[in-house]
Amino acid sequence: MRLTPRERVIAQIRHQETDYLPYTIRFRGDEGEQLDDCYGTDVADRLDAYYGSPAWQALVDNAIQRVLVPKLGVDASCGSFYTDLYGSTWRVDLRPYQLVEPAIKTPSLAGFTFPELDSVFTADWKEETLQAIDQQRDHFVVIGFGFGLWERTWTLRGFEAALMDTAAEPDFFEELIERVAHHQTGIVERLLELPVDGIMFSDDWGYQRGVLLGPERWRRVLKPRFAQMYALVHEAGKYALSHCCGSVADIMPDIIEIGLDVLESVQPEAEKMDPYELKRRFGSQITFWGGLGSQSIIPFGRPDEIRAEVSRLCREMGKGGGYVLSPAKPLQPETPTENAAAVVESFLQQAGVAFP
Amino acid sequence: MADVLSQLAVRLYAGDAKAVAQLTLAALDGGLAPSEVLDGGLVTGMDRIGVDFRNGVVFVPEVLVAARAMHAGLDILRPLLAQADVAPTGKVVLGTVVGDLHDIGKKLVGMMLEGAGFNVVDLGIDTPPERFVEAVKNENPDLVGMSALLTTTMPGMKRTIDALARAGVRGSVKIMVGGAPVTQGFAEKIGADGYAPDAAAAAELARSLVGKGGWR
User: ipTM value of the model?
Assistant: First the structure.
């Protein structure tokens, strides 16, 4: 019997090989906060012209569908500046959004209150979200929010200030992150009430060269708190997934130890994030989602190189299960049309879809 | 006085801005020249942070805190260095290229360059080619450093190099580039003079590009 996309993802997470690899391709220029799957960007438009019609879009069937909680993020839909729910102000006319005025300006929580969750999770929100989830029947649905535990601390304090707080104001930072953890645990509890397959965390622990805060500090400050959140998710019978597009190779054993089911992005250009090496070392203990290079082969490679790399990912990463095929990032606007077409066609081809 | 300088380097490494300011003043009071305090104290401390950052002993938070401490000393030394007509290791104009709002990586490079004795003019983020041209004309730097974190904005580096060439000032500066998706191959392809994978390596590269190379 033919598997549904949802069943295919679950089989992969259970490290069972499937008829073909579940996959996702996204076309937006940057990580956003909207519901997933909104086509109509530059790359998708060019593909419409390339194929002579938008019919190709209906063939792309992302196995994992993300539903996001928009109010917890940054709204770039109007104007050049946006003040988020927590009181930090962002410049939103360019990517990435630039935090211009943090809500907490000195290392003190005096006078600061976290937003009430009832203002985010309204009855209307729940109804709309249930509808959005229902539309994704047969797909693996994850719900999540941008700015995880570490990221929320810096969006409250400013990036540089939060980084310095971790070293120079450890008591304040501990208090801040404990409060954020409490707040976000409340968010996760609400999300777990929904009929979704998994919770999508998003917290960039790594940058291009390694673990941003250093592995030891990550272990001390973030690891125990994520262990608790993943445990909550598992108690609810759901999967824990996390986005992280930088290098986390140095903390992979810890990430596995605290029970993350799926690591998303696997950006191969980041230090020590070669997907094949990760597969060799950790592949039996975690599922990787991503791995096709958004900084190299997709924008700068040739279409035949892209096809060959997709074949290799399917063959080697898919061995024994534990893999969801995807570019590390949404296709960026500068992607040559032929390269975008090579991604789409090779993904569909491995799924046995006749194209076009 | 050598003891004050070694203390200065140690306190800078530890990120203790207050002690760095005090020790800088003490060193000057003790009769050391501003350039001796800079080289023997601040630059030495930042060199150690740079080496340990590259070796994975310290991380971005420690570098930022050390740089803040360095500035506590530099703020005192700068006017004195200017008065004494002490030439910096070199002068660098830095910026994140047009369309790109990423700041921290380029700032870290600026801090490490200051820690290597460079005079740094930071043009900020979203810097169009013409602003680089203008700054090269006005500031007469030895080096231009460009940063990009997006593959989408990387072409801004080539456009800037072309603009510098058109303005007739390309030959007067060395150009270094960096940022997550940037590679040595890309740097060569666009005609930059150097690429560095991280901030500490950028300071090393800058020293070698102005002929004062290498870690000491």
Answer: 0.93
